[in-house]
Amino acid sequence: MTPVVAPVVTSQTVAVNRDVQSAARAAAARLRAEWASRGILAVNLISSPGAGKTSLLEATACHFAGKRKIAILVGDLATDRDAQRLAPLAPTVQLTTGGACHLELPLIQRGLDQLGTLDCEFLFIENVGNLVCPASHDLGEHVRVILLSTTEGDDKPAKYPKAFRTSQILVVSKTDLLPYVPFSVEAAIADAHSIQPDLDCVAVCSRSGDGIAEWCELLDWHRAALNSPKPA
Amino acid sequence: MHEASLVRSLLNQVTDLARQHGGGSVTEIRVEIGPLAGVEPLLVRSAFEQLVCGTELDDATLVIDEVPLVARCETCGEFAVDGFRFRCPGCDASRVTVVRGDEFRIASFTFAETAENPI
User: Fold this and answer.
1) Greatest pairwise CA separation for chain B in angstroms
2) How is domain B3-68+100-112 classified at the CATH fold level?
C-alpha cells in the first residue's frame, strides 16, 4: 500500500510593531537634523484652502527683507500662481502634486534639488490647502504652523484635532475681518489649547501687517531654540 | 484620501518581511489604528481589498485592531482621552503625552509553512 503523504501546515506569527510610515519618518528626521546643523529652521505651513498661507509668506518675506534669508517650497494641486507671487521676494520652487492632497518627502526632495544649495535661515514649506492629510506627513520640519482664518469659524480646532495636536504654532489670520464675522480669537485659541496646550498663538493681518512682527519674532525664537535640548 | 498609499506601503513592508522569513504564504496581517492615526479603518480595509489582489499576499486576511487614544499624565498615570480633550481626569493637567492611538501600526503577520510529511 502506498503511504499517504499529507501536507503539514504550521503557522508562525512574526511581531513587527512599527508604524507604517516609519521609513518616511526616519527620512524626515534625517532632513530635520541636517537643516538644524546648518542653522536652518524648516517651517511647514498647513491650513484649509484660502486661509492666507501665501499672503502670510509675502508679509513674512517683506518683514525679513535684508535681515533674514528665506527660501520657499510651495505646494498646490495645479498652477504656479503662488510661486509667481513669492518668487520676486525669495527663492521659491512650486511643487504641483497633480491630484495629491498633501506634500510628501519625494516632492520635497525634488523641490530642494531645484532650489540648489540652501543659503537661508528659514525654509518655508507651504503645504497643499487641507487640514486632514498634511497632518499625517512629517516633512522634516522643526515647526508645524497651522493657520486658521477668521472666516472659517472658531470651532475648527476640535473638528480637525490631529492638525492642531501636531502643530507648534497657531496663526489666526485675516483679523481685519473680525468686525464682520462671528469669530472669537479667544474661543479659537482656547479650543486649540484644549487639544495642544503648548501651541504658541499669534493673530495677524497679512494685508495690513498687524501681528507680522510678533509672528516673525516667534520664528526667530524657534530658530534660536533649534539646537537646544527640548523636552520629549 | 491617503489610505491607499499607506496600504501600498503596508503591503510592500509585509512582502519584504515575509521574504526575509523564508517566503511562506502570509495568511494574516494584523494592524492597529488609533483615533489620532489620521486614517479611517473602513477606507484602509477597502484599499487593502483592492490593492492585495494579484499580489503574493493575496491569501492574507487583514485584521484591524482599533485601539483607544491613551495619554499619560506624569502625576496620575495613563488615561483614555475622550473627545480629543487632552486633559487628565485626575488632576486636570493639560500637559500630557500620547502613548497609544496616534499611529497606524503594523502589529504582526502570520505565515504558513508547508512541509510534506508521510503519515
Assistant:
1) 66
2) hypothetical protein PF0899 fold (3.30.2320)
